[in-house]
Every structure is written in C-alpha cells, then in structure tokens.
Amino acid sequence: VDPVRLDLPSVGMCRKVDEVWRQMVAQPGLILLCGPTGAGLRATAATARGAFYMPVRDKEAAVAAVRAAEQGRTVVARVVADSVPEALALLRDWGVPRASLAGALRGVLSQRRVRRVCSVCALPGEADVRAAERYGTFAFAAPRAGPGCPECHYRGYRGSFFASELVTVDQPLRDAVEMGVTLRDLGEHCVPVAERSLQADAVAKAISGDTTVEELYRCIPPLPAWRGKPAEERHRGLLRAVTQPEAPSPVAAT
Question: Which of 13, 192, 161 is nearest to 85 (CA)?
Fold first, then answer.
C-alpha cells in the first residue's frame, strides 16, 4: 500500500481535543482513525499536515502502516470500526504483531458525521429521558427538525459536522494492547481526552442547538458497557464538554 501525503485545511474540533490532536500528529507514530463507512474519515485525516494517510482494510495494509510508523513516519490509518477498542481489536485479530502495534501506536480518533439541523426552520425540543439513558447523560433538550424551508431545500437539515472521540495511548493502554486482553478490558483503558466521549461530544452539540435527538439516534451508538461510570462523573464530563470554548474558526463538514 502506497501512503498518500496530505496537507489540507483543518476540520473543527473542540479546543482541548484539537490541541491534543495537533500534538499527536506532529510526532512520529501510528494514529488510527475509525468510524463507519462514509463517516468523513479522509477529511479528518487531512488535518494531519505532513502525515501519511493509509486506508487499512486487511492485515497486509495494517502491517505496512505499523512498519512505516516504526521507521519514524507519522501515519494516519483509516479503519472501519464502530469504536476505539474495536479498532484496536480488529488489528490484533488480523494478526498484526502486538508488540509492534503497541510500540508504534500514539492514539485513536473515532468519529461520526452528524447532520446539522436547519437553524431557520428548526422547532424547539423537550428534555428526552430515553436519550439520556442511551448516552449516559442527564436529560437534555435539543431542537427538532422543522418542516423545511428554502434555506435547507425543505429537508430540515443543512450541512453536517463531526462528533469525535480522541484516545491517547498511555502506558496502561499500551500494555493492554500488547497483552491481548478482552475487548471489554481493552475498552476500560480507552479514556477519551477531557472525558469527551463520542456520546458526550454529540450530546454537547445537540444541547448547543446543532442537531436533533433523532439524528443522534440515527448515527451515534449508545454508551458502551465499559464506559459505565457513576452519574456524577458522567455529568461532569458532559458539563465540561458543554462549557469549554470551542476551537477558533472551526471548518464545518459539508
């Protein structure tokens, strides 16, 4: 697999995640970018200026990505997987040498493309308890898609953005990858930056009026079992996501 060098404009993330992402891609090593097909993974990979982008669909491509990272390159490898631990487990199950993978890995970014509700015709929403239980947060209100208007071509949605979760690889996670632990145990070591899980990031943007609960149900998976924390901890992470300022001048996905 021949890597492709990328050098394109940035895609907006929250301030803290953006800072860690920029530091991560500025250093040699392997960075996994995971999500479902059509999640806009290549657009996010393009924010890693000077890095090499490699779609990874099988063992041969995965081994090539690890080898390139071991040679001192910054490699962003796209993997189709539903979550961070599943992306790590996928490479392990393909037979990539665990010691090499653990040594080369720097971080994993999981993302989903979410449609942005039209701000012109959107309707007010009410607190949704079922959504709160699904995403492990307190009850929250988000706008509802309206009947449509000329601004959104009568679709109720206009444009899109990315919901993201960034996990840096620390020593406990590196050891878990090398030991080949179970998926659940692997997930317990995948701690997102600033406690901003994929679910917390999406809910925070719904609270700010960017999307609807219906859109969250469509594309954001429920909080996984290994993320089960006391309500106080989950609420603190979400409140941090809601109240922290966003990165300046984010570029919306289209």
Answer: 192
